[in-house]
Amino acid sequence: MIQAPISNDLFLRAQKSIPGGVNSPVRAFRAVGGNPRFMVSAKGPYMFDEDGNRYIDLINSWGPMILGHAAEVVNEAVQKAIPNSLSFGAPTRKEIEIAELIVSMVPSIEKVRMVNSGTEATMSAIRVARGFTGRDKIIKFEGCYHGHGDSFLISAGSGAITLGVPDSPGVTKGTANDTLTAPFNNLEAVQMLIDANKGQIAAIILEPVAGNMGLVTPAEGFLQGLRSLCDKEGIVLIFDEVMTGFRLSAGGAQQLYGVTPDMSTMGKIIGGGMPVGAYGGKKEIMDYVAPAGPVYQAGTLSGNPIAMAAGMAMLTYLNEHPEVYTQLEQTTNKMVTGMQQNLQKLGLTYTINRIGSMFSIFFTDKPVFDFESAKTSDTALFGRYFNGMLQRGIYLAPSQYEALFVSTAIDDELVKQYVQANYEALQETVQQ
Ligand code: KE4
Question: Which of 11, 179, 270, 341 could disulfide-link to 164, CB 3.0 to 4.6 Å?
Fold first, then answer.
């Protein structure tokens, strides 16, 4: 039995000076029960907590650690940059180099602006889309998460074509009025919103593969359908690829599915673990961004030299080693196949969704294709499963509504350990 007394004490202490004891809510384990583990180091596939426990990590910092933790290629680049000062607040050559690399890798990107988080990227992207079109409203999808910007913390209003309602205190009704929501994978609902708000919609923003309701892939024709609707109505199509960018392929989901948005937002992998976000798209849109154009957006540490060194090393490696994606496909396939065999052996019919190196197991026997169907999952069962896996040294996302991220540091031996732990934890979960 893995014990974590030091983490438990640290969590009590943390709550005295940090809201909820964490700097991002999901880390507090509230959705699964138990106390979070305080980490001290990580290397390759492993993370090590304050009590000396070792975990096989399937969160990988919520995506960035695609090469495993403390990847040499990234660490060396950071160590080389540090002596030259941590920040200038002035333009640097490295920012041009990473921008040119992103332009070469991501189909939709002709110009790109670096920021410091995925939230900053999405907030800025919709502001630019509004400035470019002169329209106010946006459409997002239930279950898609785009960071904590006010315009995104909105849940569906009653009925299909009414306005959104704030999903968090502090978000004003005025803001909510400009955000419309539709079910993911439902083109008819999007058409209805467009018809009911003719000429008022600046942008449609979505995760092209959703990872924030658990892993949900786009239905056949969904992305292309949105592309056609946006072309017809002069709406800016924004793919939020903060999670999928550089993960599902070197060019993200847009390259994998062959559908090119007008703008894309990025984060996570782009910084190699450092705080980096970015938004970009067509020249004619991006030239609306200050100081080239009138839409204001700024950031003291945007393009920070240490973060750029890390991001440049990560993206260069991925760009030069396409075999990373083949390896991740094979490893994830083995993990998911093992899980499906376990479900069969145990007579369980839970749903597993997977694409590339992202997957989720939903504790429901129904297919999961949008947020409503994801919510048929038994989250209490998931909580027991999560803790069963944690006890066996497997570190999963502490919520049914998250995706897992495989790294190249996961080898066949670790796949075996994962599949065995999955069998035992599933068996234990259903016996409790
Ligand atoms: P950040 O501001 O957390 O860097 O990015 C926000 C964001 C934007 N778009 C998508 C598709 C995202 O998945 C995210 C952040 N993802 C969460 C995981 N569900 C980060 C984990 C957390 O909130 O601590």
Answer: 179
